[in-house]
Amino acid sequence: MATAESSSLYLKRTSKLFRISLILGIVALVIGAFGVFQVLVFGNLGNLSTEVPWGLWVGLYEYFVLLEVGAVLSFTLLRYGGGIKELDKLGPIIMLTALAALVGALVSIFHDLGQPFRVWMPILRPDFGSLLTWMIWLHLAYMIILIIELWAYRFGRKDIVKKMAYISLPAGAALVAVLGSFLSVAAARPLWNDLLLPVVYLISAFVVGTGVVLLQHLIFSPVYGTSEYHKLAHKLGRWFFSWILVGIFTALTISLVMTYAEVPATAAILRQMLFGDYAWTLWVFHVGLGILLPVALLFWQEKMKTDRARKYALGGASGLLVLNFLMVPMNVVIPALAYRYDHVRDTLVRFEYFPQLVEWLVMVFVVGLMLVIFAVGIRLVIQPFYRIALQAPATATTTSGASEDDNEPLFNNEEQ
């Protein structure tokens, strides 16, 4: 009786989240469609009179890639490396989040292309000496991996889930490495050369990915409100805090090395990033709201006496970091492009950048599309997964060539 009641409450809660996501997504699609129309019909890419060719859309693309890969990598390492079996309940939500972020990344960068409908050329006629070709192929491979995992969750195939989880580790790491390398090999941009972006982006993916796992657990966990729910939230909070410390240490180390080297162009761009026109995005949003406040909340929640207060503190910390993490790729991309080199004498050449209305509208469209995908996934994958998991027997017959762990139920319902 307790299990049936738990199932009913969870399905009711996910149905409410389905309606909210779908309504917000459709509204955002309608609002953002005007910007997409301007790009596709009139070729309005925004800010064509500035020397900063990449802006909000490229920043969004990199942000969503870090989000999608980071969520899957963090989940996989915590579940299979850290042995946190309770995360099995959260698997389909994480994969659905990653798939929505992947689509958002591709749609964002699609609008930044001068000839977006030629995107199939690297697939039909690939040049594997080009990092762009590798990025496209890795995106397609990662999308296939996520779809297979969601299919496996939908039909209760834990053996396939585990195999695809192991495949997703090198695929995700390769995608992030290629993403960072694409900027790092630009010799004319000294900041990108010196930042060790493949390493920085991989660590950044784990930081934001652990935050996504924690946030999704707090919102979507099927054991919401139970002792298991609060214990896992506390455990994930400590992992989250550890990765934030790793990220801070990495950023400080690289910054100190760059400062000590005193390479003129790099030092000038670094000063522009820290104290220039875009410094407010770094100090207010990334450092203030995205690091210091989450760290403070993670400290305070350890001293809170009620599970409810700790839940809100953990949710605030993870939500703030995940939302403000957009400033990481934005502060990598824009300051390096907005630096005026000494040889540029023409005062009519503009190096400042701020997103125009069409760029904001496309961003709204992308977020709306992600919400609709997430809503559809709740109905087609998440709710059926939970029904199957509840109906799964406590023990399963071990099939030939499969381990006992592979034939366990998708998750144990005894604690519900």
Describe the model:
The protein is mainly alpha-helical and 416 residues long. Helix content is 75%, strand content 0%. Helix 6 packs antiparallel against helix 8 (197-220) and helix 8 (197-220) packs antiparallel against helix 12. The longest helix has 41 residues, at 2-42. The termini are close together.
Architecture blueprint of SSEs:
Layout: H1 2-42, H2 56-81, H3 91-112, H4 121-124, H5 131-154, H6 158-184, H7 190-194, H8 197-220, H9 227-261, H10 264-275, H11 279-303, H12 307-324, H13 327-338, H14 357-391
Terminal-residue CA separation:
10 Å
Count of separate structural domains: 1
CATH architecture: Up-down Bundle
Low-confidence stretches: 1-5, 393-404, 412-416
Keywords summarizing the entry:
mainly alpha; Formate dehydrogenase/DMSO reductase fold; disordered N terminus; disordered C terminus
